Amino acid sequence: MVEQPSKASLESYDVSRLMTQTRMLASDYRNQTGHALPVTEELARFDAISILGLKKVEGQEGVDAISVPQQDEEGLNPNESQYKFLIKGRVIFKGGKARQKLGKLSLQADWNCLLMVIYDDDYFPTQIHSISRDIIEKELENLPQDKRGSMTVAKYKAIGELVWEKQIEDASTQQTSNN
């Protein structure tokens, strides 16, 4: 009889460290095999929530996170509505397809904004774009029936708003800080 390994709780792991290891493993696997591991969606959820300061949602199909209302001196801001986010990710590999698609979105779910996290080929986030559900639905109406629900990453970028971008240090800044 083979003993089953005990299941550790998430509290016993540093999730940030696990995500760093996941990035390294996925990148190494792609470099060795030419195939991508299906980890982008979990990385996208983790990164968008961490970077944008959102609250993770569990158990609500098609909604990954919600906005955290800003507080004023008297408490919560009553004028700020809470957004429900669907989060998707896409790795842009060097020499990859020119017209990469994001994949179909769950239009039956109760989200009102898509967050699209773009990754480099080492699985590190480079950009996050926010696209309103209303805008997406209008664009999808213009597509042929067989293409409905799926648009290219470039199209999402064109109709959305860049809400975060990785800051790249130039070589002169790095040399100055290392001296």
Description:
The protein has 179 residues and is α+β, with helices and mostly antiparallel strands. It has a single domain (12-178), classed as PvuII Endonuclease, Chain A (3-Layer(aba) Sandwich). Helices cover 31% and strands 20% of the residues. The chain contains 5 helices and 8 strands, in the order H-H-E-E-E-E-E-E-E-H-H-E-H. The chain has helices spanning 15-33, 40-52, 133-141, 153-159, 171-178; strands at 55-56, 65-66, 71-72, 75-76, 84-91, 113-119, 125-132, 161-165. The strands form 2 sheets. It has a 6-stranded mixed β-sheet, with helices on both faces. It is globular. The model has no long low-confidence stretch (mean pLDDT 85).
Write the layout of secondary structure elements.
Elements: H1 15-33, H2 40-52, E1 55-56, E2 65-66, E3 71-72, E4 75-76, E5 84-91, E6 113-119, E7 125-132, H3 133-141, H4 153-159, E8 161-165, H5 171-178
Parallel strand pairs: 5-6
Antiparallel strand pairs: 1-2, 2-5, 3-4, 6-7, 7-8
- Uncertain regions spanning at least 5 consecutive residues: none
CATH structural fold name: PvuII Endonuclease, Chain A
Strand content: 15-25%
Pairing-aware structural class of the strands and helices?
alpha+beta
Under the CATH scheme, the architecture is 3-Layer(aba) Sandwich
Compute the CA-based radius of gyration: 19 Å
The dominant shape is: globular
Mean pLDDT: 85
**What is the domain tally?**
1
What's the story with the biggest beta sheet?
Answer: 6 strands, mixed
Helix content: 25-40%
Strand order of the largest sheet: 1-2-5-6-7-8
* Terminal-residue CA separation: 60 Å
